[in-house]
Amino acid sequence: MSDFPALPYPWQQEVWQGFIQQFSDNRLPHALMLAGSPGLGKRHLARAMAQYVLCQRPVSESACGKCKSCELNRAGTHPDLIQLAPAEPGKAIRVDDVRALTEAQGKTAQQSGYKVVTLMPAEAMNSNAANALLKTLEEPAADTLLILVTDAPSGVLPTIRSRCQLRTMAIPPNEQSLHWLTPLVSGSGHSAAELLALTRGAPLAARDLLEGDALDLRARWSSDLIQLTLGQTDTLSVAAGWQKGDGRAVLEWFSGWLHDLACWQVGAERARFADIDPGLTSVLKGISPSLLHRFQEKLLHSKKLLNSGANPNVQLLLEELLMDWGVLLRARAG
Ligand SMILES: [Zn+2]
Predict the structure, then answer these.
(1) Mind spelling out the 3-state secondary structure of the chain?
(2) What's the CA-to-centroid distance between 59 and ligand 1, angstroms?
(3) What is the pLDDT of residues 88-111, one digit of tens each?
(4) How many Å lie between the centroid of ligand 1 and the Cα of residue 63?
């Protein structure tokens, strides 16, 4: 955690103001669900909310950063903040951890009035963990705030979703993202507009592309896909290459690209289709929209599987997906 206390990003102001208002009116729900595309700062917002609620003397719109509770939060040792997450990315949240939460809920808060539980990603619960959580939601303890964070609310049990107040984060207006991102990427050799186009307008995802070799991986991914689509390489070697990296990032890029493609096919959002290659135009134009839609559904299913903590065989999953992509392209040719 670099900044303390965490302050919401500019595009989160509306949700944040609503939250502060609910808190000061004593109308906070027992459970909140923050949902939206990856790269919008939902985890950061959940942290800001937790710090604010636990702070003993919040200043006008943030935690004070000075009280005992804030000190504990800064050190990451606040006894009234429970953070549930998979032990490793891509793994499931364990049912034992969720059960421990139910026990902890029965105890009184040690520092301030509130206890806060953050659970992310909420789609990474198997059915045992989800059912254990459901019990907590059905018998909410007083002065406890549960914050669930998810990229894919449809991957969360409907009975859990319906017991949470939903806060959906939209992709911010391009102007706002450019304003925020431009100073952060100056001197990088890349423009904010270019990076935002690659992440379909998600500002944090755009910023993170400059970390490590993310941009190179993104470029290699795009070139693999173009070559495969043009029939210049084969499914198995592309799948093997993609599997070595972060499978979830690959699927995220792919689904964003397909979305852009679908928009481009109907003549909308042309400027945002960052990876269009002149050689590809005729191939992509010929793809049937209904087959494309079906393929998008399949990709969504693969993404869910990968994020659910079910631990699927990533290589196999990518191979199947790319073979389907090949089938779709051949259907066009036929
Ligand atoms: Zn404080």
Answers:
(1) CCCCCCCCCHHHHHHHHHHHHHHHCCCCCCEEEEECCCCCCHHHHHHHHHHHHHCCCCECCECCCCCHHHHHHHHCCCCCEEEECCCCCCECECHHHHHHHHHHHHCCCCCCCCEEEEECCHHHECHHHHHHHHHHHHCCCCCEEEEEEECCHHHCCHHHHCCCEEEECCCCCHHHHHHHHHHHHCCCCCCHHHHHHHCCCCHHHHHHCCCCCHHHHHHHHHHHHHHHHCCCCCHHHHHHHHHHCCHHHHHHHHHHHHHHHHHHHCCCCHHHCCCCCHHHHHHHHCCCHHHHHHHHHHHHHHHHHHHCCECCCHHHHHHHHHHHHHHHHHHHHC
(2) 8
(3) 877 889 999 998 887 777 777 776
(4) 5
